[in-house]
Amino acid sequence: MKILYVHERFGALAGAEANAFITAQELAARGHQTGMLHGPGTGKNEEGWSRAFTERFPLAGDSAAQTRAALAAFQPDAVYVHKMADLEVIQALVDSGRPLVRMVHDHDIYCMRSYKYHYFSRKICTRAASLYCVFGCGACLVKNNSGGFPLKWVSYRAKKREIALNRRFHRMVVVTEYMRDELLHNGFDARRIEIHAPVPRMGDPKLRSSFSDRNLILYAGQIIRGKGVDVLLESLARVKSKFECIILGDGNHKAHCEELSRKLGLADRVHFKGFIPQEELKAYYRECSVVALSSVWPEPIATIGLEVMRYALPVVAFDAGGIKDWLKDGYNGRLVPWMNRQAFASALDELLQNKAKAKQMGENGFRLVSAQYDFPGYIAGLETMFERAIGECGRRARHIPPLEGGYRAKPVVTVSA
Asked: What is the pTM of this model?
């Protein structure tokens, strides 16, 4: 197959970019040809991306015309759209009549704020896109991350158009049942939604933590407000056990969290190490007793949880978004009521004080992730999905009804505590 990826950036940056890169690499290794229609470069691993995507089509100027030119030049069997907010690009793709697949990484398509929770109250939004977003939520004004004036206007009419265009895609790929439900709330056809969790590659199967008396709590991820590092610190201030916490990552909330750590009297126990390369994480996994996942926005899946389960580490997380798809309370960690700092602290205390339980939960997580989140199976599922979308698109062109019923890539593994 020839698959044209479409993404707003070119190069490494965050989870969406990591998923696009590793899937393109593996599809190419299996004999498929991958090209990319893309926005500006990130300046990170662009050389590696150039090897993964043999043909590149940068977007600049008339994006609709450039999209049509890319389709004409590459002649893809299917188009795989990741993050792309330019509606002229999406319109040109829809108008092309080619098989279209959309990877739904987050809430951008149907949420004007993009993160499905209120900035001030931090309450998670459970509504579909509607005029309430404008008059009730005030989501037409959002933070401007591009510099200049601190706020920018978001058009409700444009958001409704974006939703309508994406409903015309032949497949919407989501990562959890939670994300599937969000699409259904916004009027997407259940028959066109497939669940394919973005599985990380297998780690070192021999690496296991010592669960030492160091009582190391590990956080790894962006330090932005939605990730709840401030709430984690407030929870740590309630922990009774002796502990050390390492916080890995950077972000615009880091300075605030460092100051909060000092105010809470945690400076001698909580250490901010900044961003570190993936390979260096293993040194922390060898000492870690529990991984803290403190997101308070509705995470689509939080792939860091899948990654640390490959190293048999238990997880404590707030029940936010799609995390409950893989974190089973009492089985591979603790799923804590949203924003309940005392419950989070108690869950950490439980695992720090009972290392046998922590180890057992870690091994349970390793078994779950090995059975349910298999990387070769994930790529094979994507291949099958592309083939199915191509076939059904051809049937529609010949006025043959598509197959009835929805599809799930792989059944959920059911576990009990």
From this structure: 0.88
